[in-house]
């Protein structure tokens, strides 16, 4: 099983849209059994996929009350696509003064081990919050690959270095080696965007995917419709870009 985290310390860069569409494409077009793990207390990925946390959420994994992954996983209306939803309760993980931080970092790796043993999924995808909270570090620690969505713009340049440094420090925790790639998102054809892209392609501390994701209103529409954009508007620019990018990702995986 592969595990991929979608990480960026900034909000609004397309993490959730990338996580959900990657999950949707792998399940629908590649026949992969996918588990999406909503690791952001905002619960946007859960909402996007049309699932409410109800009785269970990722927070239950961290408070130690859940011994069985079956208790926290919910099916979605999409074939081969399941989710562990999230809600604000997950924010309390970082506020708990008594928490065993080492154990919290291991939570998703332990979940992964259990899923591998039972051979239930082919891919796990973690949608992370815009912070290095414990659930985010735990997700990175459980992943082989980290994908950093980058919205081209002036502030990305300093943010990228910060992120690369922090990912390097997580890498040094002695856990398995993981690869880090950048993906340009919410791209549109303007001078400033092209300049930012040129700069990033030359100076980025992490390799960038060749494919990028164009900006289209269909994406925001799809989030309201609670459907991956590849389903809501299969021929839209972003849907085509996400499919082309997943094909590129599959080549490096
Ligand atoms: N390719 C795109 N085209 C247009 N809007 C997009 C695109 N990707 C993301 N968005 C919009 O940008 C906003 C932030 O995206 P989101 O995935 O929620 O970012 P993050 O998870 O990094 O905070 C959302 O309103 C989303 O609908
Ligand atoms: Mg998000």
Considering the chains and any ligands shown, give keywords for the structure.
globular; binds magnesium ion; 7 strands; 45% helix; Rossmann fold; alpha/beta; 253 residues
Describe the structure.
With 253 residues, the protein is an alpha/beta fold. The chain has a single domain, classed as Rossmann fold. It is built from eleven helices and seven strands. It has helices at 15-30, 44-48, 58-62, 92-95, 101-118, 134-142, 156-171, 191-203, 217-225, 229-232, 237-252, and strands at residues 2-6, 34-38, 74-75, 81-84, 123-127, 145-150, 179-184. The protein has a seven-stranded mixed sheet, with helices on both faces. The longest helix is centred in the middle third of the chain and has 18 residues, at 101-118. The radius of gyration is 17 Å and the shape is globular. The N and C termini lie close together (11 Å). The model has no long low-confidence stretch (mean pLDDT 90). It binds adenosine-5'-diphosphate and magnesium ion. Adenosine-5'-diphosphate binds at residues 11-17, 44, 185-186, 213, 215-216, 219-220, 223, 238. It holds the Pfam family AAA_31. This is ParA family protein. Residues 1-173 form the AAA domain. It comes from Agathobaculum hominis. InterPro entries: AAA_dom, DNA_Partitioning_ATPase, P-loop_NTPase.
Write the topology of this structure:
Elements: E1 2-6, H1 15-30, E2 34-38, H2 44-48, H3 58-62, E3 74-75, E4 81-84, H4 92-95, H5 101-118, E5 123-127, H6 134-142, E6 145-150, H7 156-171, E7 179-184, H8 191-203, H9 217-225, H10 229-232, H11 237-252
Parallel strand pairs: 1-5, 1-6, 2-4, 2-5, 6-7
Antiparallel strand pairs: 3-4
Helix pairs in contact: 1-11, 5-6
The structure holds adenosine-5'-diphosphate (ADP) and magnesium ion.
Magnesium ion binds at residues 15-16, 40, 44.
Organism: Agathobaculum hominis
Domain AAA: 1-173
Protein name: ParA family protein
